[in-house]
Structures are given as C-alpha cells and as structure tokens.
Design brief:
The chain is built from 20 helices and 18 strands. α2 packs across α4.
C-alpha cells in the first residue's frame, strides 16, 4: 500500500540520525542472559546492515538512575528505519529474542542529527580498540521545549553559538552532537545533546561550571525550556557484525544454548563456550567462523587457516590439545571462500583476496592483533601472505606443508583435479568423491593410511563435501603466486613445520631451501614424523609438541 503523500515527503527529506534505546532488565532476567542475547544476536544483526547502521555502542549508567543501559546506533539516513530491511528485524524476532525482550523495559527514540562539533583529537569510537573505547564518557541531555514561538530555534542557536563552544574547552571533551526527536516519531519535539568525553576529563571543573552559568543560558531556560533531563554513562561494549561475547556465554547454563532459524548462528554456553556464525566479505561472500577457548575479551587469539578442500574442523584434534594445555588462548577458525560457495559474480581466489578475508574477519570481530596465525597447505601460503601484508595485525605465524611459489606442473595438476571433481565416475558417483579418495591417498603418510584408517576416512568425507564450483574458483590461488622476493621483508617471527612424508619428502627439501630466507634472520623448520601433508590431523600430538614452545 502506498504511503500518504506527506509521509513520503518526510521519508525523502530524512537525513542522518540515531537510534537511541534505553533498557532496564526486569528483576527476573539474568544480566548474563540479557548481555549475551544483546551482544551475540541483537546488535550484530544490525551491524550486518552497514547501509543503515554505521556503528553500535552500549553504555551503562554512572548516575545511579534507571534505565541502567543505553544503546546507540548511528543511522546513515533516518528514512531507512521505515523500510522492510529494518522493520523486518523486529517482525521476525527469534523465539529467544522475543522471550528476552519481553523481560526488558525498552524505550526507543529516533533522533535527527542537527549539528556536530568535534575536537581535533576525536576518533570515532568504532575505530578505537576495545581497550581505548571502553570507559569513555557520554553525557546525554534531553530538553523538552515550551510551547512558545521560536523556542527550538533559540535553544539551537544558544547551543551552537555559546554552550557547545564553551564545553569544547572542558579538558577531555571529544565531541558534541545536537539532535532533535525525529519527524518519523511524531509527537512533541525535543532537543537531545550528546556530549562525549575521554575517560579522564574535566566534568565538574571550572570550565564545565562556567558553561552552565551564563546570562544567555538563564534566559534560554527561562523562556524556552519546560523540562531538562541529564544522564551520564560509561561505554562498555562496541558492536561489530560478528558475535564474539564468549564471556557472558560462559556464565550461562546449558539450557541457554541458541541456534538461529537459518542455522548460521549458534551459541554453546558453559565452561567451554563456543560461538559459530558468519561474516560477509566486500564482494558479498559469506564466510563461516567458530570462536571458542578462553572467554575473556582480552585473551590472546590464535587463528587457523585450513587447506583447500578441507573445513575448519580439520583442526579439531589439535584444538582439543591446545584448549587443554594452553587455556589462556581464544581460538578462531573459519572456512576458506569456496568451501561453501562463491561470490556473485564469481571471482577466482588469489592469495591477496584470501589474506584480505582474514583481515575482514578480524575487523568484524574487533580483533586488532592476533597472537598467532597457523596455516597449512594453501592456508600456509595464505598465512605467509597475511604476515607480509598485515604485519601490524600479527605477533607470530606457523606455516605448514606449503611452498613459497607455485609451478607450472602444480597448476596443471590442479586443473586436472578440477576436471575430476566436475566429472561423474563410472559407477555414477560424483567426481568430487573420486577426487577426495585420490587427494587423501596423495596427502597422507602410508602409516596413516594403514594404521589410522579412521583419520583417513574422516578427511576423505570432509574433502568430498566441498562445493565443487567453489573448489574450481578456489584453486586459482595456488596457480600463479610467488613470494620469494618478499620473504626477506617479512617482519613477523615465524616457524615452519612439515610432515616428513609430504610429497615423499620433496616438501621437506623445498621448505628447508627457503627457511633461511624468511625475514632478516631466517626461521626454524620442524619435521613431524610419520606424517604427510596434514600433520596436525595425522599426528596431532607430535604437531603440538613441534609448535607449543613457539606459541
């Protein structure tokens, strides 16, 4: 049904603004449940719509007044809040969200942006690290105007010409934005000022007191303002599009487990919390990830890059050892593009694209820097490329069973494997199943094939479940790359690991040939016995022994 003409005009005229939400959980609702739902479901769902929401911030009151919690979202254009893209978020709530929000007293306000003034040192909060952002101060002032002609114009003028310039002299002042209640809401208009300050500031000091005691201010309040409400808050959480709150999740009972209707998002609560979800890349591809381990938001993070044709679960045996013996680490795994599909239009993978995907994932989870990145095969090449391209995001890396350059013979072999995957076998079975058997026989050490048949079958099934078209577009990353000239410029400490039987020993020789060329001092090569191309799958304990000291 077409909107009324006057409503259409309001929508067309709408500019940037804010969604401003105060919340007070009712006494029967666990705060851990409230925070886990909000941080892992509600907020990230909105941040996955960057065309509408540019950020999402959570504050807690410091003035002892309820509502205790505040969430603010900057909106690119207030007209978006009347589109199905936004309204469907509320109409299609999950049962968990509906149950939780039913136990929270919520007040939503739509605010139109009037003006902004910021200090030279101001940086948008979403661009800060969590450590830098958390604890910054917000003062929110809501002015209800008297029903007199020109009241809104006079109060706005006073703010812009006197009050905000005086506040800008308060030590620690960062930014002030002036809003008015949106035309989308209707009702009596109010002016809302949001003043942002550093953690250490001069609120209550002489400069601040001076801004509150001028003749013009007294005149404006006397003539134009019916009521004033002032709240103070401290920032405690910054959203990204990827759920990451293991801390709240770890304090919930098993019964609080959650899986979204589409199966993409799930949370496993308790002492060993797990979040599985997905993020979108710049070209529209969805990349699944799994976050687990130490639930502290400040825990050092180890991330993993699997090989082509495998999934993030190839690391399961090694991760189990890591969690048992190195509980201080948070653990991040993800599936390469191509495992589940390709972007539209299709884009062949390159090491540059694959390393950019890691950077995109880290940004979505607000992880500024990894303690370590561990990769094998194509994941090893991607790990090295990431270390070369983003050294500021990485403390160390472990690269396994890979080469620093491709060869014509290797390219030809991969093209032949694509043909096998896209064919139909003589018995009518899909070619990807034939390729899976051939691949595992080529990858694994004879000892694994005879003495660890369960391991061989596990990886065979993993390879066979790969998306065939994704495999075709993933292979090009291994066709034409050469990092030999870049090796010396590597600034990140690394460790090389290889299975002694990989390529019947050929890869041991290849990696030994370039280990001394990594960085200015070279790096160590460790060899895992009785293992082939995936030593972390074939001999997880020996692989752990090879890397644990470096980690």
């Amino acid at each position: 049904m077409e909107a009324p003409r006057h409503r259409q005009n309001l929508i067309e005229m709408a500019g940037p603004g804010m969604l401003y939400v105060t919340m007070q959980p009712q006494p029967g609702l666990s705060l851990d449940q409230f925070h886990e739902w909000y941080n892992n479901e509600h907020g990230p769902t909105r941040l996955r719509l960057p065309q509408i929401f540019t950020n999402g911030l959570r504050y807690k009151a410091t003035d002892g007044v309820e509502p205790t919690f505040l969430a603010v979202y900057d909106i690119t254009s207030m007209s978006h809040l009347e589109t199905p893209t936004y309204t469907s978020l509320r109409e299609n709530r999950s049962p968990r969200e509906a149950q939780t929000i039913g136990q929270v007293d919520v007040k939503r306000s739509f605010l139109d942006l009037v003006s902004t003034k910021a200090s030279d040192s101001f940086v948008p909060i979403e661009q800060l690290t969590d450590e830098e952002a958390e604890g910054t101060v917000l003062v929110a002032v809501e002015l209800t105007l008297k029903d007199v002609a020109g009241a809104e114009e006079e109060v706005t003028k006073w703010n812009q010409e006197e009050h905000i310039p005086m506040l800008s002299k308060v030590p620690g002042w960062l930014r002030t934005r002036l809003f008015q209640t949106s035309s989308l809401e209707g009702g009596k208009r109010k002016l809302v000022s949001l003043h942002e300050y550093a953690k250490t500031n001069g609120l209550g000091g002489p400069e601040h007191k001076a801004s509150m005691s001028t003749a013009w201010r007294e005149e404006v309040f006397s003539k134009c303002i019916d009521q004033k409400a002032r709240r103070t808050y401290s920032l405690f959480y910054v959203f990204g599009p990827g759920p990451r709150d293991l801390s709240s999740l770890s304090r919930l009972p098993d019964s609080a487990a959650f899986t979204s209707a589409d199966g993409i998002n799930s949370t496993t609560p308790g002492s060993s919390p797990v979040i599985t979800s997905a993020i979108a890349t710049g070209d529209g591809l969805t990349i699944p990830y799994r976050l687990e381990g130490n639930p502290s938001p400040s825990a050092p993070t180890i991330a993993f890059c699997n090989s082509l044709l495998t999934s993030l679960h190839m690391w399961d045996p090694f991760v189990a050892l890591l969690k048992a013996h190195r509980p201080q680490f948070r653990i991040l795994r993800y599936d390469f593009r191509g495992r589940h599909g390709i972007p539209s239009p299709p884009v062949p993978s390159t090491l540059n694209i694959l390393s950019d995907d890691i950077s995109t994932l880290l940004s979505a989870l607000r992880i500024q820097r990894l303690h370590a990145l561990i990769g094998v095969s194509m994941g090893g090449a991607t790990t090295l490329k990431f270390a070369l391209k983003f050294p500021e995001k990485l403390d160390r890396f472990v690269t396994c069973d890979f080469n620093v350059a491709s060869s014509e013979a290797n390219t030809k072999a991969w093209k032949e494997r694509i043909a096998v995957a896209e064919s139909t076998s003589a018995d009518g079975s899909p070619g990807i199943q034939t390729l899976a058997r051939q691949t595992v026989e080529r990858w694994f050490h004879p000892h694994t094939m005879t003495e660890k048949k369960d391991t061989a079958e596990w990886i065979t099934q993993m390879v066979a479940s790969n998306d065939v078209e994704g495999f075709r577009y993933g292979c090009p990353a291994l066709w034409d790359y050469n990092m030999k000239e870049e090796l010396k410029s590597c600034k990140v400490p690394g460790l090389l690991v290889v299975g002694d039987g990989d390529g019947k020993g050929a890869l041991v020789k290849a990696m030994d040939g370039f280990k001394d060329k990594v960085g200015s001092q070279g790096t160590e090569l460790k060899i895992v016995p009785l293992a082939g191309h995936l030593p972390m799958c074939e001999s997880p304990r020996d692989f752990f022994d090879a890397v644990q000291e470096f980690l």
